[in-house]
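User: Please predict the structure of the protein below. I'd like the answer in structure-token form so I can feed it into my own downstream comparison script.

Assistant: Understood. Taking the following sequence of 936 residues as input:
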Amino acid sequence: MKQMNKAWLLLLAFPLSITAQDLTGTAKIPLDPNVKTGKLKNGLTYFIRKNAKPENKVDLRLVINAGSILEDDDQQGLAHFMEHMNFNGTKRFPKNKLVDYLQSIGVKFGQHLNAYTSFDETAYFLPIPSDDAEKLEKGFQIIEDWAFNANLTPDEIDKERGVVLEEYRLGLGANKRMMGRYLPKMMYKSHYADRLPIGKKEILENFKYDKLVNFYKDWYRPDLISVIVVGDINVAEMEKKIIDHFSSYENPKNEKPRKTFDVPNHKETFIAIESDKEASSSNVQLLYKDAGLPKKIVTVDDYKKSLMEGLFTTMLNNRFNELTNSPTPPFVYGFSYHGGTFARTKEAYQSMAMMQEDQQLSALKVLVTENERAKKFGFTQGELDRAKSQFLSEYETAYNERDKSESQDYIGQYQSYFLEGSPAPGIEWSYNAAKKMIPEINLKDVSSFLNEYITEGNRVVVITGPEKEGLKKVTEQEVLEALKVNDADIKPYEDTEIAAGLLRHPVKAGSVVKKETNAKIGATTLFLSNGAKVTYKKTDFKNDEVVMEGISWGGSNLYSNDEIKKTQFADGALMEAGFSGLKVNDINKFMSGKIANVYPYVDDITENISGNATPKDLEYMFEMIHAYFTDLNLDKEAYEGYKQKQSAFFKNLSSQPSVYFQKEFYSYLMKDNPRFAGIFPDDEAWKNSDYELAYNKFKERFANAGDFEFYFVGNVDDKIMEDYAAKYLASLPSTGKKDQPVDLGYRLAKGDFKKVVNKGSDPKSNVTIMYYGDTAYSAKEALALEALGEVLTIKLIEQLRENESGVYGIRASGYMRKVPYGSFGFNIGFPCGPENTDKLVDSALKELQKIIDKGPEAKDLEKYKEAELLEYKKSIKENSFWLENFTSAYRNSSNPEDLLKKEDKIKAITAKDLQDVAKKYLTKDKVIGILMPEKG
């Protein structure tokens, strides 16, 4: 995990900017000139940017510089409640007409249409088509109504209480209980400790209507609002719309001041040691809060310092990564960064880690020691060179993609500029500045930050973990001792020699024996001398992206029952061993500044190898593929380190009621499958795992590259693809054998039954309704089942959320598979209150039965089609979508050209198609799983 400085990340992905730059130290960082910005007379700020990706779409965002921190004592939770009310009804879209209308133009509730409330802000997201004047106008009407014309009637407020309380219920659990105890120490004497956005249950249940109305009137006002418009639009037209829709509103005559709230400093070290019976992991967080306010990045000098800080953070975290990849890892992960806390007015230098349940003190000691090592000795030139290379590579990729960035990538940047004054200069300015400044930065520049950050004042340690018999809880005195470091014991970091390359053996190239092109989908297929096939599609969707997957029939279904039990949890350790005699840390160091990743794995019916790279670093991806096939390391020490990390991660996971439910529910469904060893490993599973067997089985599955088909999609060059395919893929070993997918005959438990699992102390339940079974695969029925899930989701949200106020979220989904045997599945899932489970299950099944009896309503089917067609038009210009299409065609023995017919297939779906699959598959046996709290 590489954590980088917040400031430079914000500066990284900005769009094409200016040609002439003033990079003198005191010069101010400019605002990206490609964004049109302005302020209306009433104080409303707007940002407008033309961006044609995705085509014919615009992202509208309404940002309110107000959140839960501004609530009165009797309003706690109402900033967030107000967000809910804006989706319930406005002047132009009363009751549920707003969601209904947006669904009719292809905007999915929750997935596209969404919002969030935090301590200091509230933001609403509205992506809509931009090629229809009426839809565009309605989009502006909606965000205008959200800002100033919400319907806050008593009936609608009371109706929404249930939904908000269900969201409140979702947040209950060990983490919230522990946070409630440590937050007052972390945010010492601060208003932030008392204003969690979800609020208080008793207030949400009982607040008077005028409290919500007052919050809306006080804080939803022009001078605290920004409207951001980015998309495939005409900038002048959008500016006129903003003026037309927002100029007439005035700020309140006696407006409340928009206060900011400090986090007071303290001399003491505060220590919070919290545990809970349902805590699923052990964590340590060490904070050194800044004494002053956050420093704004305003000038070129500020920008350069942010680059220095980013390099410092990257180097330190690279050290943590090396420790994590060691044979005796001190934690599952550990990292440090300087950045925000809960409060907008307070930043901190923070180090955190997740570790074994009994290693909290030793992990804390490692964090403190590494901070002190860097503080005392600084960094090596090699570390700095690698970090610089990594930074410049990231900047270069962002620069190369400047004309391919998605609209949503820009909106958050302009939002931060409005709310916090974060810089937004554009990638050309940022890239040119980085190219000039990064080479100038020296070791002295990056070694001074910890002297500034680490002080004994404003220090807070938060330790959280499970509470159980036999596990000793650490004490405050032990924590204080762990914070002390014997200076004489700390030695300088020792850098290691960088590898010369990724391959240690010469590659004897094969050849391309045949070449075919498919003009319909713009693909080329190379037939290699060892029997492997390479299909690639050159695209211009991204300038700096190539994605890859290789796939072959076989997989772990070819293992015996004993072999699968011994290898399934050890498989993940194989990648921890490295290749070509190089350890993971060696590979990571060599790859600094290069962007190429490869990951091989064995699935149940296939072996796969996936990856991505920039065109510039494409050869490294091919070398990695070659190395994983031919020269994977066998490293028992790496396995032991992997096992320690995995054990720490999974050991207490089932303490979480929702995870425990999944474990028990699926163990019951898989009771007749002798290969099933649980959804995650316990101590017994690790005891029975055999790393060497996993290694040998992996080598066996990857011994025959001639059975593989490799797919590449992105900005590729024909000659380079042929050359690399011949050298690195055609040279791979081949046996001439062709495996096929094997059906072992094991199935989930059959019947019509209910399984109730009791776990947890909070009043929380989860419901899963499942239909499944064998069937002959049909592409038409597969699409109809998928559509049925989307249409039923619309009805379930309408009935169980909007009408009954019984759930916060609910989802239905359907699918069909062809291999290793024809099968179907259909699931309905939702969390709710334990007292409502039976009633809501009945309601959900009634909505399904309506479709079975009468078919779906025409308007709901049209909503599905509109959303799918919009998604298809967007996705068909994405590399990952085409890659998935190639691999799906392989799995289903279908033609990848079928993707071009999908639009027609979506349009052709009828209500009868959905009714038919509902009747055929969803009127027989069903399985209901319910999580209930523990009794007593």
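That's the full token string. DSSP finds 31 helices and 23 strands in the chain.
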